[in-house]
Amino acid sequence: MSRPHPQPARAVAAAVILTTALALLSACAPPEGPPGVVTDKADRWSSATKTRRYSLTVRTTHGERKEFRVSLRTYDRCDGGSHYPACMKG
Questions:
Q1: N or C: which end of the chain has fewer CB within 10 A?
Q2: β-pair partners for 37
Q3: In the chain, which residue ranges form alpha helices assigned H by DSSP?
Q4: CB of 87 within 8 A of CB of 79?
Q5: Residue pLDDT, tens place only, 4-37
Q6: Residues ≥6 apart with Cβ < 8 Å to 67
Q7: Strands 36-46, 51-59: pairing kind
Q8: What is the pTM of this model?
Q9: Residue ranges per structural domain of the chain
């Protein structure tokens, strides 16, 4: 009598766990803002939730100012005068 090999089941379980983790991580990222030139950066501390929110303000090609939330990584990479979203790749 032969026993089934547990290897395929482990591979499927690992794939499911990896897919779930990637889906959860991508859901946590703030949505991207409009393209434009970074004119301002802000980091706001919330003592109630003990969290910090990062935001950029850009001037769009139509001359509008738009503020939107970003990740810490994007906040660190995009300085005033840089072009968003190209500054994220730097």
A1: N
A2: 59, 83
A3: 7-28, 72-77
A4: yes
A5: 555 666 777 776 676 665 555 555 666 789 999 9
A6: 40, 42, 55, 56, 57
A7: antiparallel
A8: 0.65
A9: 36-89
